[in-house]
Every structure is written in structure tokens, then in C-alpha cells.
Amino acid sequence: MKVLIIDDEKLLVKGLKKSLEQEGFEVSVAYDGETGFSVFETSSFDLLILDLMLPKIDGITLCRMIRQSSEVPIMMLTAKDSDIDKILGLELGADDYMTKPFNTRELIARVRAILRRVEKQEVQQETVYTSGDLVVDSGYRTVKKAYREVELTPKEFDILELLIRNKGRVFPREEIFRLVWQEPCLDTRTIDVHIKNLREKLKDHEKNSPMIQTKWGVGYYFRRD
């Protein structure tokens, strides 16, 4: 993970850079807003640590400039302990805020928390499952068949996403109900009806090898490609 620190307190930056590198981060530094923005534009970073009070271009202005073209996570630092400064920084798009002096271990823990949250969001947005001309996008909860969008109910989508995410695994009706409805199964016929509707909407009528297959006496599964 690459981190850019933009702060004019050279002693603080030196210590923070060393601590982050010991944790496995690759760290670049800049001591004023103008240089910081130039470094940011010429490389790719996973997170910025940005001081509020900077020479040449202040942290608030720099945050605004960066947010015009990038959603990179930003941790803001300040010697001020004013609520208005925190609110302003966060409203401009900062992901977190720490007031100097701070505990380095806490800052690193917060940095890791931000990166985990961003990584989780990216995984959710980019999880796309395909089978032939079927495309299931879990992040946007859309389904396309032969490039045409298929309108599914929320439960139909959840069942399809569960099956295609686990191709080849047979799910008993009771388990499908429990995983999708988040409650004990009261009537397995509900699953049969939803599967029937899914097959109709997906035009899944191949006799020899439909996408959603039945394991007689057990349940349903999505065929392996």
C-alpha cells in the first residue's frame, strides 16, 4: 500500500514515515501543499495523510482540489481542536480526522481501518458473476441476459446471486430459504416458485443443461461452466 504524507513538520513526518514503513507501507512525503499536489498527480497512492495548515496551498484547499478528480482516502491532521475545522474537513471529503499531538499506533490503526473499508466497498462494487451470456452484478444488483437487463424481485436476485456465486454446489431448499430470508424455512414450496420464476425470466429452458439445475430430492444448484 502506498501512502503520501503532506505535512510541514519534518520531525513528525520522519517519525510517522518510519512507523508506517515498519508496518509494510511504501511512503512518500511532501512538506507543502503545492509540492504535495504535484507528487499526488505524478503517482498513484492508496491513502493520503494531509495536514490542515500547510504552506503555499492549505490542507482544506488541497483536499478540495484532490476531490475534484480522485476518491483516494484522506486522513486529515491538524493542530487545531475546533469542531468547525473537523466538520469542514470531513464535508470536503476527508475520511477521518486526527488532532495533533496524536498516538502513532492509533493513527496507523485508523489508516488500516479506512483501507479495509475501501477494499470491502471495492469488492462489493466489482463482484460480477457470468455464465454464457448471463451477467450478475452483485454490487449494483443488476442482471443482464444477452445484453438485456432482466427485472428480478429482490428475493429472486438474492437466490440467483447465491447459486451463481457457488457454482456446482447443491443447496437444499431449506438452506436457500434460511440464507435468503434470514429465518427458518416454513414452506419449501416458496423456493420452488421463485426458481420457476427465475427460469422463466432468464429463459432458462435448455433441456439437457439448464443454468439452474435440480438435484432431485435435495435442492438446486447453478451448473458449472
From TrEMBL:
<dbReference type="InterPro" id="IPR016032">
    <property type="entry name" value="Sig_transdc_resp-reg_C-effctor"/>
</dbReference>
<dbReference type="GO" id="GO:0000976">
    <property type="term" value="F:transcription cis-regulatory region binding"/>
</dbReference>
<dbReference type="InterPro" id="IPR001867">
    <property type="entry name" value="OmpR/PhoB-type_DNA-bd"/>
</dbReference>
<dbReference type="InterPro" id="IPR011006">
    <property type="entry name" value="CheY-like_superfamily"/>
</dbReference>
<dbReference type="Pfam" id="PF00486">
    <property type="entry name" value="Trans_reg_C"/>
</dbReference>
<keyword id="KW-0902">Two-component regulatory system</keyword>
<feature type="domain" description="Response regulatory">
    <location>
        <begin position="2"/>
        <end position="115"/>
    </location>
</feature>
<feature type="modified residue" description="4-aspartylphosphate">
    <location>
        <position position="51"/>
    </location>
</feature>
<dbReference type="GO" id="GO:0032993">
    <property type="term" value="C:protein-DNA complex"/>
</dbReference>
<keyword id="KW-0804">Transcription</keyword>
<protein>
    <recommendedName>
        <fullName>Stage 0 sporulation protein A homolog</fullName>
    </recommendedName>
</protein>
<dbReference type="GO" id="GO:0005829">
    <property type="term" value="C:cytosol"/>
</dbReference>
<feature type="DNA-binding region" description="OmpR/PhoB-type">
    <location>
        <begin position="126"/>
        <end position="224"/>
    </location>
</feature>
<dbReference type="InterPro" id="IPR001789">
    <property type="entry name" value="Sig_transdc_resp-reg_receiver"/>
</dbReference>
<keyword id="KW-0238">DNA-binding</keyword>
<dbReference type="InterPro" id="IPR039420">
    <property type="entry name" value="WalR-like"/>
</dbReference>
<dbReference type="GO" id="GO:0006355">
    <property type="term" value="P:regulation of DNA-templated transcription"/>
</dbReference>
<dbReference type="InterPro" id="IPR036388">
    <property type="entry name" value="WH-like_DNA-bd_sf"/>
</dbReference>
<feature type="domain" description="OmpR/PhoB-type">
    <location>
        <begin position="126"/>
        <end position="224"/>
    </location>
</feature>
<keyword id="KW-0805">Transcription regulation</keyword>
<dbReference type="GO" id="GO:0000156">
    <property type="term" value="F:phosphorelay response regulator activity"/>
</dbReference>
<dbReference type="Pfam" id="PF00072">
    <property type="entry name" value="Response_reg"/>
</dbReference>
<comment type="function">
    <text>May play the central regulatory role in sporulation. It may be an element of the effector pathway responsible for the activation of sporulation genes in response to nutritional stress. Spo0A may act in concert with spo0H (a sigma factor) to control the expression of some genes that are critical to the sporulation process.</text>
</comment>
<keyword id="KW-0597">Phosphoprotein</keyword>
